[in-house]
Write a structure and sequence with these properties.
With 222 residues, the chain is of the alpha/beta class. 32% of the residues lie in helices and 23% in strands. It has helices at residues 5-8, 36-45, 56-63, 74-80, 101-108, 128-137, 158-167, 193-196, 202-205, 216-221, and strands at residues 26-30, 48-52, 68-70, 86-92, 112-123, 170-179, 206-215.
Length: 222
């Protein structure tokens, strides 16, 4: 089965919903793709969802599902939204595609309402398949989707992600992971991956890293 860019990034993310504040009235989805995730959030929470998407085809589709979509580079879009406030900002598998993810995280701080939450999902380059490809096969995989998506500009482990958050003024409030035994999302064996993700195996079976963040000054006061 071949996965295209569209097939890989246009589905709802039910795994992220538990990290969203139930009371979030306004949500910003950075890298909203076709708006499937935002539409699901609107249905579940009744929130107003604004999207940012650089791909014009995705942006047009998302505009039919979300309350508003800004079609531009992330930094330019955040600048265009200056003066608005959001109760939650979602960066779902988008920071790894950016030239300067730190600058984007810093910029979005200015759009946060009091007690706002930032939700981030990142592919984990420490996933065991990285070592199989490099150590056994001697090559860096370039794929259409997943951890080794050829369009990634940055790579993260949990330690790298936490360092980025700290540098940009965020603390991790909650974290979790999606585990896999196979890279392919449709592999049935992945259903039992969490049962094997124990002890020293855990960081190598983590496929996606999920975080709920708060501005550091707020987290320190709670």
């Amino acid at each position: 089965m071949t996965f295209s860019r569209v097939e890989s990034y246009t589905t709802a993310r039910s795994d992220l919903v538990p990290l969203l504040p139930l009371t979030a009235g306004r949500i910003l989805d950075v890298g909203c793709s076709n708006g499937a995730f935002g539409a699901d959030v609107k249905r579940r929470l009744g929130s107003t969802v604004v999207g940012i998407e650089i791909d014009p085809d995705f942006a047009r589709e998302a505009a039919q599902r979300l309350d508003r979509v800004v079609c531009d580079d992330a930094l330019a879009a955040l600048a265009a939204l200056r003066g608005e406030r959001f109760d939650c900002v979602v960066c779902a598998d988008v920071l790894e595609h950016l030239v300067d993810p730190g600058a984007v995280l810093t910029a979005l701080r200015g759009l946060l309402a009091p007690r706002a939450t930032v939700v981030v999902s990142l592919p984990n380059v420490r996933f065991y398949d990285t070592f199989v490809q490099l150590g056994v096969r001697g090559w860096w995989p370039e794929r259409d989707r997943g951890v080794h998506d050829r369009t990634h500009l940055r790579w993260f482990t949990d330690a790298n992600a936490r360092a980025l958050f700290s540098r940009t003024g965020f603390d991790v409030v909650r974290s979790s992971a999606n585990y896999r035994l196979r890279d392919r999302p449709d592999a049935r064996i992945n259903r039992v991956a969490s049962h094997f993700a124990r002890g020293p195996l855990r960081p190598f079976l983590a496929y996606q890293l999920l975080y709920q963040l708060a501005p550091a000054e707020r987290a320190a006061s709670t």
